[in-house]
Amino acid sequence: MMVYLDNAATSYPKPRIVYNEIQKCMQEYCANPGRGGHRMSISSGSAVFKARETAAEFFKIGNPLRLAFTKNATEALNIAIKGVLRKGDHVITTSMEHNAVIRPLKEMEKEEIIELALVWGNNFGEIDSKHIKKSIRPNTKLIISTLSSNVNGTIMPIKEIGEIAKEKGILFLVDASQGAGSQRIDVEDIYADMLAFPGHKGLMGPQGTGGLYVRDGIKIKPIMWGGTGSDSHSYYQPDIFPDMLESGTLNTPGIVGLGYGIKFIGDLGIDNIQKHKYTLLKRIYDGISHLKGIEIYSIPDEGKNSGIMAFNFKGVNSPKVSDMLDKKYGIASRAGLHCSPLAHETIGTSTMGAVRLSVGFFNTTEDIDIAVNALVEISKSIQAGYV
User: Fold this and answer.
1) Which of 130, 254, 264, 367 has the fewest Cβ atoms within 10 angstroms?
2) Stretch 11-27: mean pLDDT, rounded?
């Protein structure tokens, strides 16, 4: 049995209720939601709307219809970025963003559609919101920040950034890919105009699910057009939410699973999940921080980390350590650049990447002890010259 410590990529395992409800959907009522008047189609549509309401309540979104389902956070971020930006706009983002943010922005910059400003973090990737404010120009249209880094778990000052955006009348997009499910998120409290999230990470849903919240009043253009089950007589995309952003058949069983993953979190209590993850994170840090030659890039303090311990052994490429953890010790980790090259440049790991252990609610102290003991052995092998 593998010790799974790659929850920042995809959480595993899922709550039992997620598996059960997906199977129930597939076997009993999985017709096309919103595309028919028969009972199975109506049941599918009702299940999707129930999940929409659950997700909206979780993020404190007043109107569930302002939340569109997507296949992942990357799609949600692309819709948000390409949907609101126009030629001549200026965008501010941070050096800790995932490529799901950086690549569409850099493409638009290359095509001379937008101007882009990067705000760099310190050695741990911490962002000073004052630097965001100083980067604002008269044509700044959008500020984008991740909730927390997928590389080292550093939590960003999103409420402070949101306050600045609101004060200046600038749109604020939050990438909640890391932290949603263990960090409390209230879109009104953080002044988020748009919020993108995946279903398969901290929200404990299946892969192929995600969503985008867009505040009422924001003009956004879809990046895909097609059948929505509404206004079918028209040749043009409807302008009502969420239909305008949900062309094509939805992933009904996946969305059902996502809804029950979020329900599981709500029933359990997000504070309990957060406390458990911090306990495990501290246990990792206490177990490895004394090792000779280890370099740690994550802050283990409560409230500053969403559940990730990133590190390297000096002089050893991160994929080599991760491969040893897998093949010799049965431990799942992640190594390399984690689709966030700017973040690695920020924390000084561009050359070798970093080994990433990311904890989840279903991890135990026994899992952590196994991982720590393995890293102690690997450290000894490195010092002895065997690695």
Assistant:
1) 130
2) 98
